[in-house]
């Protein structure tokens, strides 16, 4: 018989697991990893309403995508084009970024799998006599290691020609040049930290769902068990 067990700790772990997976996925797909050096407005780029020059534009560059201004749309609201600069994996600008993409993709796949499984932990608490929380926590720890490897390798690719075109000639491995880090990089770091927090917190979720209070509720014949 399926017993639906919901506790504060197990629900918090489930929600955090889902948030972490989505955060890492969104960061990976974003082009806002590097914010390029400001490009001054040309003499032709004059705001028709004020008569002054538009603010300098800062293009952005991601692991496999980029956002840049389109000259013939410079006066419209949609004046930028975002999309992948690499049509296939081999066209990613740096070998280090290719490795970053592999490690991040592996970590995100594991996190998305755990996030999907975590939804069913209310009904299923064990697999082959092993706690599903402990298994998921182990997988989250492994995913965190993949994410760390990817984030460590990413700055090593700042010396590639693509990054130099955005960040200036002084850009090199682990040196940003005229670029700055975008929100996607910080989101990936924050998600990695939360991944390890989830891995540790999974043990608390397991303890909460196997506590004496839960066992007492089961012995009383209750199928829906909600505990603080």
Instruction: Give a quick account of the main beta sheet: strands, pairing sense, barrel closure.
Output: 5 strands, antiparallel
Question: Looking at CATH, which topology would you report?
Answer: Butyryl-CoA Dehydrogenase, subunit A, domain 3
Rg, rounded, reads 23 Å
Total strand segments: 9
Task: Give unreliable regions as ranges.
Answer: 43-47, 73-78
Q: Tally the helices: what do you get?
A: 6
Order of helices and strands: EHEEEEHEEHHEHHE
Going by CATH, the architecture would be Up-down Bundle
Classify the helix fraction into a percent range. Answer: 40-55%
Q: What is the 3D shape?
A: elongated
In the sheet with the most strands, the strands line up as: 5-4-3-2-8
CATH class descriptor: Mainly Alpha
The overall average pLDDT, rounded, is: 83
Find the structural class using helix and strand composition: alpha+beta
What is the end-to-end distance?
Answer: 23 Å
Quaternary structure of the protein: single chain
Q: How many distinct domains?
A: 1
GO biological process, one term: single fertilization
Pfam families: L_HMGIC_fpl (PF10242)
Transmembrane segments: 12-35, 96-120, 132-154, 183-203
Organism: Thryothorus ludovicianus
